[in-house]
UniProtKB/TrEMBL annotation:
Keywords: Membrane, Transmembrane, Transmembrane helix
Gene Ontology CC: one annotated term: membrane
Compartment list: Membrane
Name of protein: Uncharacterized protein
Family per record: Belongs to the peroxisomal membrane protein PXMP2/4 family.
Any Pfam family the entry gives: Mpv17_PMP22
Entry membrane topology: Multi-pass membrane protein
Keyword Phosphoprotein assigned: no
Length: 223
């Protein structure tokens, strides 16, 4: 029976993989948008519920504790923003970038790999950090000054960590993985990376609130 159960599970996974590969070949952008949305949704849930310790259902709280209680409860709007970013704003661009990168070819495999990695780290990585910070801030309703402050907080540290995470991943991806599966590999690595992005974005939002609080108090006193 255990052998039959294992075989059945293997058959299910094999069929799922076959369905995914077929969809990837027939509708590549749509399929990557769906997988991108699923991975960023999962990443934000992990960030909020597992790392930040939020609860899905709010506990009972008095009026004085309402604000703190909201901070400790799952933020569904934040999850929707992250999911929208991963599926709609990022996945099609990642698809296009991998298409462009695949066309970069030189005399031999080594120089081609080096050229692709240099382009990936010097152009794509900083663009993605810029794109995430800008679009997420706009979705959150941040002002231009707040977006500028957010860039100061997270642009260079996030870019550096992105290179550390995706550098080794891209070496393997660009040398061993078939072209049409490379986005899947990046999205798989990106699950962990998006947990970090969700967490650091929320942390920096809190930092901005802390910076703004004394300014608001001073302005109120002046009035």
């Amino acid at each position: 029976m255990p052998v039959l159960g294992s075989a059945a599970r293997a058959g299910v996974w094999s069929r799922l993989w076959s369905t995914y590969v077929t969809a990837l070949k027939e509708r590549p952008v749509r399929t990557k948008m769906i997988t991108g949305a699923v991975t960023t949704l999962a990443a934000d849930l992990i960030a909020q519920l597992a790392i930040e310790g939020k609860t899905v259902l709010p506990r009972s709280a008095d009026k004085e504790g309402d604000s703190a209680e909201r901070d400790n409860s799952w933020n569904a709007v934040r999850t929707l923003r992250q999911t929208f970013y991963g599926g709609v704003l990022f996945a099609p661009l990642a698809h296009t970038w991998l298409e462009i990168l695949h066309k970069v070819k030189f005399g031999n495999a080594a120089t081609t790999l080096i050229a692709r990695l240099c382009l990936d780290f010097s152009l794509w990585s900083p663009f993605v950090v810029f794109w995430f910070t800008t679009t997420m801030s706009l979705l959150e309703g941040k002002s231009l000054d707040q977006i500028r402050q957010k860039f100061e907080l997270q642009f260079f540290p996030t870019w550096g960590r992105a290179v550390c995470v995706f550098g080794p991943a891209q070496v393997i991806n660009l040398t061993l993985v078939p072209f049409h599966h490379r986005n899947f590999v990046l999205q798989s690595v990106g699950l962990t990376w998006n947990v970090y992005l969700s967490w650091v974005n929320n942390k920096n939002n809190r930092t901005l609130q802390t910076i703004a609080a004394p300014v608001s108090t001073t302005a109120a006193l002046d009035v």
